[in-house]
Records
---
Amino acid sequence: MTAAQRYRVPFQRRGSIVGQADLAALASVVHSAEPLSAGVWRERFEQRFREVTGARHALTVTSGTVALELAVRLLDLKPGDEVIATPQTFQATVQPLLDHDVTVRFCDVDPDTLNMDPQVLESLITDRTRAVLLVHYGGLPADMAAVLARARRAGIVVVEDCAHALGASYRGVSPGALGDIGCFSFHSTKNITTLGEGGMITLNRADWAERVERLRGNEVDGVFAPVPGFADDEPALLPWMRFSADVYRRRAVGIRGAGTNATMSEAAAAVGLVQLDALERFTERRRWIAARLDAAVSAFPGTRLQRTPEGSTHAYHLYTFFVTAGREVREHFVRALDRRGVEVQLRYFPLHLLPEWRLRGHGPGECPQAERVWFDEHLNLPCHPGLSDEQVDHLVESVTAALHEATALAGTGRPLAFR
């Protein structure tokens, strides 16, 4: 039995809805005579993404993980460099750093938002710091004004992991257009999908966009210069002799590394374009579900909601709240929800405690707020547009009943009074 069959209210396997418009776009791609790779649909999707986010440059790739890998490549890290990262995110955010001889400093989080704490960030910046990798946790934008003020003073690059944040805004600006580099995921569970996998990298520098264009297209990432005197004896080249022209017309000054094939298929891009036009509808559905959950959770005195700061809008890729009545109450609550057919998953285990990072010297006590919240308070509930009204009703009723039951079974053995 699959989780979707077992649970009346499953956690998201799909974060958006694929409908007739998506199928029509696929049919258009398949029935056309256009290429199925690196064609017009990719160009349209990237252009529309720039319009929606306000990013200067947007380039599709095969996944959010690949977007993050390319972002780290752009940093040109050297041995001894330092990078500051959040511990409260999926492992892909920082995993590319394992390939570099750099020091990673995990920055503790604000316990009310689970985003990077700018005060802690400032204490971690040194003259070796080259970049900050942050996430907009669950779709709630980080405190970018505070982060950017500290980063700009130190001359360091800010990379936004926007995997959760498409549809959110910070002071009227979309994530991905706030820092220096933005990385988006279109995985099946994300706010829009490109047939299960896909990603986008947004940039504010033309030279970085050119490098990503080469990297994703299986070209060498290097510095090249014109060959002196080439125009005097230019050989006759037909249009399809592109690589021959490169040999004749330029020489390599320096090579940073090899490129890869990170080309999003035309079918995926076509679906992404349709999904992007439905983003506002998907996001409003998430917000409606979140508002109903907020009302149910806030009626219980042993809980705390994730705080949305003034000037930010939440995309609610994840619905997060905190049980402050104790670990025992939280455990009873999760078990009670499971019995009622509501699937609960926790996102995400603190990264600095994973084995690969412990091997690099990280461990307990490094990010006390992230650790305390994760082990004692943190909870995520289903919140995605694929839930029917009936499922949402059952979810809200189950949350109310489970919270009441949890406090009845824990501590004094009697329920706390509802507000």
---
Amino acid sequence: MAAVKKILVVGALGVVGRAALERFAAQPGVQVLGLARRRPDFAPEAAWLSADLRDAAGTREALAAHQDVTHVVYAALNEQPDLVQGWRSAGNADLNTTMLAHLLDALQGAPLQHVTLMQGTKAYGVHTGRPMPVPARETDALRDHRNFYFDQQDLLEARAQQQGFQWTGWRPQIVLGVAVGSAMNPVAALGAYALLRKEQGLPLAPVGHPHLLTECTDARLIAEAIEWSWGAAQAHGEVFNIANGDIILWARLWPRLAEFFDMPLGEPEDVRLATEMPPLAGLWRRIAEREGLKVPELDTLIGLSWQYAEATFASRRPFPVPPLVSTIKLRQAGFAACIATDDCVLAHLQAMRAQGYLPT
């Protein structure tokens, strides 16, 4: 990383942003800057900026003293209160593209070398109700509907040509990591669901379709791949699928979760997380007060992740075909790191315990 001088992680409190910031802030000789709307409660060794990317002037002001940024990890995202409906919203697409434009405008004179852009499997139309190509390859991206992934990519590619920096895009599957208030954090949802069941004296009831197959992506793996892409010329101007390297049958994860939380494993139930969990906020508050947790409010901890859980792994409605992607392009380009998904889930739950978000 000799050429890396100053890394800006945008959306640094999200699942991907947090993993990236923690990875880079731990490395000597590198300046790391985190940008977010909310206050951080981790990585004190990093410098932090508060800015709302929806505000062009505010973004310029926040970054005015940081025109020496060389690498940007753009992991910021605006989601609507109705998460899935927002994925199809033209207004939300416009806003997300405008946010990236404001960031790039604010760094117009910086000596940028590389910008990382986050996408996902919505590039393959998984949110439209149509079956995904299986396995979805990068060339299977569907541009026949409004999707800010492509608007942002087109914008970034044009700016890169104008300013002379490189860029790489990433399409992870269900991302696993640690974050507070994220719109898409299945680990927090799993942890809170288990603990609320346990507090009520109930067994851990598996939710979702019993034969659901998916892939997931550890946020730490994404951070490692981002760092690799900076020095890999074959990654410049490219978009890659990225996943842990295995396929998870969710029915096999529940016994390990029950063991982790020291709970009996119950029979599967049709629990509607998005509607049945939020009313348990008072119960979570009692757990948090008793255990001295950092985040006493359930909504603050979970964000929109109950909705995301139902859209990905917690719905009883099966996908038409398993939503699987090919990672051959990334492996052939030279990045082959991997991790077992069930180990990854438990590692992040343990991290949430260690950091005071879940009881020990």
